[in-house]
Amino acid sequence: MRGISFEIPNTYGKYLFEILEGINIKEFTWKIGNGESYFIDNNQLGNSLFPTSCIFDGKKLYKEISKEDYYLIFVDLKGFTKKEDIRKVATYQEFIESECQFVLLIVDSSYVTIYSKDQVTLNHIFFKAVSVGYENIEYITDENDTRTTLIAF
Question: Which pTM does this prediction carry?
Answer without folding.
Answer: 0.95
